[in-house]
Q: What sequence folds into this?
C-alpha cells in the first residue's frame, strides 16, 4: 500500500509537469495561430518581394525574424571555431593538472547570467567608442560578439564532453596500433563525434536565438528594419516580444507578440528536434 | 637464447592503490612467456606497461626499469618520451581480452595500423588475407570484409583483433587471454598457430588455463 502511494506521487508529479507543459504550449500556439496572418509578418508588403529584399517591411515581425537569424548565425560562426578547438584541447591535450581547472572555468562562465554578458558588451562598446572608434555604437556586430561569449562555454563543454564520452576502448585502440595523438584525434575521435557535435551546435544556435538580455543591451531595437551592415541596429524576435508586450497600444499589437512568441517557440522546438534527430542518427551509425 | 625485455623491480600503482610490487622478469626472444595468477592481481596492467598503454590511465604510476632490446640497444621503456610511443607500439602490440574494435568495417579495422605505416590499400590486401587465415577467420568473413566489424560474434571479434595485431608483424605480441571467447577446437588451433608464430615474434600472454600454459608456454610468471 505504501509502495503504491509512493508510485502514485511519481505518476502525479509527471502528470502535473506534462499538463503544465501542454497548457503553456497550447496557449502560445492557440493565441499565435488565432492571430496569425501574413499581414502580421509582412505588414502591407508582398511576402516574396520582402523576402528577396525588394520591398521594405515597416510594421511586421519579418524584420525581427531576419535579425534573429542574422545575429544568432553570426554569433555561432564567431563562437564555434574557438569553442570547438578549446573543447578539443581540454579533452585531448591539456595537461592533467589544469584540465579540471579549465573545465570548471567554462562551467562557471556558462552559469553567468546573460544580462551580465550584455552589460559587459555594452561597457566595452562605450569604452571603444570613447577612446578609439567614435562611430562605433551598439549594433548587430556587438550583439553577435556578446552572444558568442554567451554560447562559447556551451560549445566548449559540448566538444569536451563529446570527446570524453568516446568509449575508452575506441579512444585507446588506435594508440595501441601505433597512432600518434594527432592521428587518433583526426582519424578516430573527430569522425566519431562529428554528428554529436553538429547536434550540439544546433542547440547552441537555439540558445543564441532565444536570449533577450544580451541583445537588448547591445543593439536590438524596435523598428530598425533589416540591418544593412554589421554596424547597424537590428530587430530580434525575443526583443520584439518584450517591447510589444510592455508597450502595446491595442489588442492587435499585443496579438503580434503572441505570433512572434509562436514563431520563436517554433524555431526553438524545430532546432531541438533537429538536434535530437541528428543524435539519434549518430547513435544508429555507431551501433548498427 | 637472448632476452628482448628485462623487467627490474617494477612497481605500479593506480593512485594510492598498489597493483604490482617488485616485479622482476626476463622475457626471451622467440619464446612464449605466460603470465598467470588470480583475477585483479595486475596481469593486464603488466602487459600495458610493456607497450606503455598504461600511460593512458590517468592515475597509473610506474617505477623501476623495463629494458627493451631495440636493435641491439637496451632502452628503458618507462623513460620513453611521448613522441617515441607510436614507434614503440608498432613494435609491441597489445591484444585486449575485450575486443577493442574501431568503429569501422572489418577491412578498415585490419588496414588501420598499416595505413599509419603508409602502406597502400592494394599492397595491404594480401597481408590482411594472410593474417585472417592465420586466425582461421578468412573463410568465415571473406564475403563481408566491408561489413560492420561490430556485427561479428564475440569469438570472431577476438580473432579479428588478433589478426589486426598480426598484420603489423610486431616484435612482441602481448596477448590478454587470447582464447577466452573461443570454443575448444578453435582455442586449440589458435594455440598451435601461436607456437608456430613464435619463430617470427616474441609472445607474452595471459592465460587462466593451466593446460594451455603447459601446452605452449616456454616460461611462466605466476603473479600471486
A:
Amino acid at each position: 500500500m505504501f509502495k503504491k502511494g509512493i508510485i502514485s506521487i511519481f505518476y502525479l508529479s509527471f502528470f502535473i509537469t506534462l499538463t503544465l507543459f501542454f497548457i503553456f504550449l497550447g496557449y502560445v500556439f492557440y493565441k499565435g495561430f488565432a492571430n496569425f496572418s501574413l499581414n502580421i509578418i509582412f505588414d502591407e508588403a508582398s511576402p516574396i518581394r520582402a523576402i528577396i529584399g525588394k520591398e521594405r517591411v515597416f510594421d511586421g515581425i519579418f524584420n525581427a525574424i531576419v535579425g534573429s537569424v542574422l545575429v544568432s548565425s553570426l554569433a555561432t560562426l564567431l563562437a564555434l571555431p574557438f569553442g570547438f578547438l578549446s573543447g578539443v584541447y581540454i579533452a585531448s591535450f591539456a595537461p592533467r593538472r589544469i584540465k579540471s581547472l579549465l573545465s570548471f572555468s567554462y562551467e562557471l562562465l556558462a552559469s553567468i547570467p546573460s544580462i551580465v554578458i550584455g552589460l559587459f558588451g555594452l561597457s566595452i562598446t562605450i569604452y571603444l567608442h570613447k577612446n578609439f572608434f567614435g562611430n562605433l555604437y551598439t549594433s548587430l556586430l556587438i550583439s553577435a560578439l556578446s552572444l558568442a561569449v554567451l554560447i562559447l562555454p556551451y560549445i566548449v563543454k559540448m566538444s569536451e564532453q563529446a570527446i570524453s564520452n568516446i568509449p575508452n576502448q575506441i579512444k585507446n585502440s588506435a594508440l595501441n596500433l601505433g597512432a600518434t595523438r594527432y592521428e587518433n584525434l583526426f582519424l578516430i575521435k573527430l569522425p566519431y563525434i562529428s554528428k554529436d557535435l553538429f547536434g550540439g551546435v544546433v542547440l547552441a544556435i537555439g540558445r543564441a536565438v532565444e536570449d533577450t538580455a544580451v541583445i537588448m543591451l547591445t543593439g536590438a531595437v524596435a523598428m530598425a528594419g533589416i540591418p544593412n551592415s554589421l554596424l547597424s541596429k537590428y530587430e530580434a524576435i525575443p526583443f520584439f516580444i518584450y517591447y510589444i508586450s510592455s508597450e502595446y497600444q491595442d489588442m492587435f499589437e499585443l496579438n503580434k507578440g503572441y505570433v512572434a512568441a509562436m514563431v520563436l517557440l517554433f524555431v526553438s522546438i524545430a532546432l531541438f528536434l533537429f538536434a535530437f534527430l541528428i543524435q539519434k542518427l549518430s547513435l544508429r551509425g555507431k551501433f548498427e | 637464447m637472448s632476452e628482448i625485455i628485462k623487467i627490474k623491480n617494477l612497481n605500479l600503482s593506480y593512485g594510492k592503490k598498489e597493483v604490482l610490487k617488485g616485479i622482476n622478469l626476463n622475457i626471451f626472444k622467440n619464446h612464449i612467456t605466460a603470465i598467470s595468477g588470480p583475477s585483479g592481481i595486475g596481469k593486464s596492467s603488466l602487459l600495458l606497461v610493456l607497450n606503455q598503454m598504461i600511460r593512458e590511465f590517468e592515475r597509473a604510476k610506474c617505477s623501476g626499469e623495463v629494458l627493451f632490446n631495440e636493435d641491439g640497444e637496451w632502452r628503458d621503456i618507462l623513460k620513453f618520451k611521448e613522441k617515441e610511443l607510436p614507434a614503440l607500439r608498432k613494435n609491441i602490440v597489445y591484444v585486449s581480452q575485450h575486443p577493442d574494435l574501431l568503429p569501422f568495417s572489418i577491412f578498415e579495422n585490419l588496414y588501420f595500423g598499416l595505413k599509419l605505416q603508409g602502406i597502400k590499400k592494394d599492397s595491404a590486401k594480401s597481408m590482411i588475407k594472410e593474417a585472417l587465415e592465420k586466425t582461421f577467420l578468412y573463410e568465415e568473413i571473406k564475403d563481408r570484409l566491408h561489413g560492420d566489424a561490430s556485427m561479428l560474434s564475440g569469438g570472431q571479434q577476438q580473432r579479428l583483433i588478433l589478426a589486426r595485431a598480426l598484420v603489423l608483424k610486431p616484435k612482441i605480441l602481448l596477448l590478454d587471454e587470447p582464447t577466452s571467447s573461443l570454443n575448444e577446437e578453435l582455442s586449440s588451433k589458435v594455440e598451435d598457430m601461436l607456437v608456430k608464430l613464435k619463430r617470427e615474434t616474441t609472445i607474452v600472454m595471459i592465460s587462466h588455463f593451466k593446460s594451455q600454459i603447459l601446452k605452449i608456454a616456454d616460461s611462466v610468471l605466476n603473479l600471486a
